[in-house]
Specification:
The protein has 31 helices and no strands. It is an all-alpha fold and about 725 residues long. Helix 5 packs parallel to helix 7 and helix 9 packs across helix 12. It is rod-shaped and about 170 Å long.
Length: about 725
């Protein structure tokens, strides 16, 4: 008995180790608390475990009488009763909300008690009890999407309140970190809700991702199944809306930006997936566009929710928005489309190089008057535009300028290549021979004239040698090139109108997209076509006059005796060539080319008169022949009213008409006029010695070089003496 008594006395002693004559049969922690908990359990109706008996007040008075026996005080009672209410709520299936509200209400009393005592034993019990409550609550709240829904949302509200209250008491009264900080710096409730939201939504996102992957695998045998990330974007968008409608209104009581935190979390989760996806995209595919469009829509929806949620916040939601760096889905789509554009433009440029090298510019091989490659390149451009507008993107108007600029450069490249190597008017104009004075009446005249003819022919032939070796640059071939450029130019308007139609049918187009004309127009090609037609037209004209007809113009007209070498052979050849031009060239550019031929023939006529070399000499009596011949040349182009307009003929013949009177003028008057004009041009320095005026090529009756050249070709002694004395010009080259 003595041993038993000793053991009992030891167990019944006060926790401070003191001994007294009166001992309690149960005095100490935690056994007394467990006994007291069992006493409090008697407050519940035995027939209805969720209801408290009606005599609870009377029963509680009896229970309180055990405080002295069990060592219980009011603070321990409040803590124990909170636990009993909470435990009963859990044990009975979490259906009786009054128990949860009662426990939460009782926890408010515990919070007051915790602030008033520093008792270490109480703190241990407090920490243990509230940690259990908070642990149970957080197990549900850290993945609240798995536990709660619209059907039991009010249970969630009670559990959140209980869990947050327990956390606040623990942090404020137990956490040493909290005590080191100023209390105003820590919003415990907001921090806990923030944690619940982020944790639960990460879990929900992972579940949605697994579900999307399963859905993709299940539909792999279907036609055009949705990509996983497109399915996931749709599911995440629905999750965000559900969060905003169901959970955020509850959580907003503790966190003013609950919905914003939720969508920022979802945004970050999806960002990890979409950025990895974007980094792996190498080309524009339907799947890639679907995913990027879905990502872009999701991002806009999430940002919209965040903005609406933060409308009343202090910073307007800037902090939340900073958590949502853009996916750059639109930029990724734009880069993919630009890659798509570049591939097609590179192919088109290669096509131009390959096809123009093989192109045959012969009219017989091209019944339409233009080459097939022109039709083909326009068809390729049209198909490229169709394919572009069929891309499943929302940014056609924004990216159209890039495509237009690229196609424009390719078409300009075609035009430049089509006219390259064809020369220009300067290619065919012969080099002016050195000035000589006329040797009148020489019996050897025919001998040196023949020699001069041979020398001049060699000079001309060296200039155009590269043209003669390639049949691609004959007159008919050049005409086909002109038709080809004209065809391309005329199709520009058709293509631009088709682009407008595409834009009108484009769901993403706006009014300003139609008002901005530059984005849908070809800027380089039309100008290149106009310039190309002009260059080729002049090349055709000057090639005909100075190259193809050189035997009747440069080597024949007025060589020797003017009266026996008149313009008729030239007119016959010109007429034959004009007929070829009329039959070959498109009617819209025909007038242009014939006008250039007229201009070239006028230039050739003047060149013969003023720079024809020592094989030519003119007396005053020859002026009538020259004037009659020039009238016949003009009549050829007028064609009795069926040719060029009279005003156009007059415009381009003005220079010739102004120079021809010089050939009627007597030599003395010409010399005097030459002296006067030279003095006016060079000033007093020309009094002692008349300088040799340079050749400008701009013939004019008041220009010194023009007057000098008329004197050089004047077949009389006075002119020859003046030239010998003034410039010591030779009689032959």
């Amino acid at each position: 008995m003595q041993v038993l008594r000793s053991a009992v006395i030891s167990l019944a002693s006060r926790s401070d180790g003191s001994l007294s004559d009166s001992c309690h049969w149960a005095d100490g922690i935690p056994l007394n608390l467990r006994l007291y908990e069992m006493l409090l359990e008697t407050c519940f109706d035995i027939n209805d475990e969720t209801s408290i008996v009606e005599e609870v007040d009377e029963l509680m008075e009896h229970i309180k009488k055990t405080w002295v026996i069990l060592g219980i005080n009011q603070m321990l009672h409040n803590l124990c009763f909170t636990w009993v209410l909470f435990h009963r709520f859990v044990a009975t299936g979490q259906v009786e909300m009054d128990l949860l509200y009662a426990a939460d209400s009782q926890l408010a009393e515990v919070a007051k008690d915790a602030k008033t005592t520093k008792d270490p034993d109480y703190s241990k019990i407090l920490s243990s009890t509230l940690s259990s409550i908070m642990g149970w609550a957080e197990k549900r709240l850290l993945a609240y999407h798995d536990t709660f829904d619209s059907g039991n949302i009010y249970t969630m509200q009670g559990i959140v309140s209980l869990g947050v209250s327990a956390a606040k008491i623990l942090v404020e009264n137990v956490s040493s970190e909290y005590l080191r900080k100023r209390k105003g710096e820590v919003d415990i409730a907001r921090n806990r809700i923030d944690t619940y939201i982020r944790s639960s939504l990460r879990t929900a996102f992972a579940q949605r991702m697994e579900k999307a992957d399963s859905s993709r695998r299940a539909s792999k045998n279907q036609l055009n199944p949705l990509p996983v990330l497109a399915i996931l974007a749709k599911d995440v968008g629905e999750l965000a809306v559900h969060e905003k409608q169901v959970f955020s209104p509850i959580l907003k009581g503790w966190h003013p930006l609950a919905a914003g935190v939720a969508v920022a979390t979802l945004h970050a989760c999806y960002a990890n997936e979409i950025k990895q996806f974007i980094s792996g995209i190498m080309e524009l595919t339907p799947d890639a566009v679907q995913v990027l469009r879905a990502a872009d829509k999701l991002e806009k929806d999430l940002v919209q929710i965040a903005v609406e949620d933060a409308v009343d916040s202090d910073d307007g939601g800037k902090a939340i928005i900073r958590e949502m760096p853009p996916y750059e889905a639109e930029a990724a789509i734009a880069n993919l489309v630009k890659g798509w554009i570049k591939i097609r433009l590179d192919r088109l440029k290669e096509w131009v190089d390959r096809n123009l090298q093989q192109e045959v510019w012969n009219p017989q091989a091209n019944q339409e008057g233009y080459v097939p490659s022109a039709v083909e390149i326009l068809r390729i451009i049209d198909e490229t535009l169709d394919a572009f507008f069929q891309l499943p993107i929302q940014t056609h108007p924004a990216l159209l300028p890039d495509l237009m600029a690229g196609l424009d450069k390719c078409l300009q490249y075609y035009v430049v290549k089509a006219k390259s190597g064809c020369g220009s008017c300067n290619t065919y104009i012969p080099t002016m021979p050195a000035l000589t004075r006329c040797e009148t009446g020489s019996k050897f005249q025919g001998v040196w004239r023949k020699k001069e003819k041979s020398q001049n022919s060699q000079k001309r032939n060296s200039q155009v040698a590269r043209m003669n070796g390639d049949n691609s640059f004959g007159i008919p071939q050049l005409c086909v090139r002109i038709n080809t450029l004209h065809r391309i130019r005329s199709e520009m308007d058709v293509l631009e109108k088709r682009i407008i139609t595409h834009l009108r049918n484009c769901e993403s187009a706006h009014v300003e997209d139609f008002s901005n004309g530059l984005s849908k127009k070809f800027e380089l090609t039309p100008a290149a076509c106009v310039e190309g037609v002009q260059q080729l037209s002049e090349a055709v004209a000057y090639k005909i006059v100075f190259h193809d007809l050189s035997h009747v113009l440069w080597d024949g007209l007025y060589v020797g005796e003017p009266s026996s070498s008149r313009i008729d052979p030239l007119l016959q050849e010109l007429e034959r060539n004009l007929l070829i031009i009329s039959e070959t060239v498109h009617e819209r550019v025909r007038t242009r080319i014939i006008t250039d031929i007229m201009k070239a023939s006028y230039d050739g006529f003047l060149l013969v008169l003023l720079a024809g070399g020592p094989s030519r000499a003119f007396s005053r009596q020859d002026s009538q022949i020259i004037e009659d011949d020039f009238k016949a040349l003009k009549d050829l182009f007028w064609a009795n009213g069926d040719g060029l307009p009279a005003d156009l003929i007059d415009k381009f013949s003005a220079t010739v008409r102004s120079v021809l009177p010089l050939f009627r003028t007597d030599t003395e008057s010409l010399i005097e006029r030459f002296r006067r004009v030279t003095l006016e041009t060079y000033g007093s320095s020309a009094r002692s010695r008349i300088p040799l005026p340079p050749t400008s090529g701009q013939w004019n009756p008041t220009e010194p070089n023009t007057l000098l050249r008329v004197l050089c070709y004047r077949n009389d002694e006075t002119a020859s003496k003046f030239l010998k004395k003034t410039y010591n010009l030779p009689k032959k080259l």
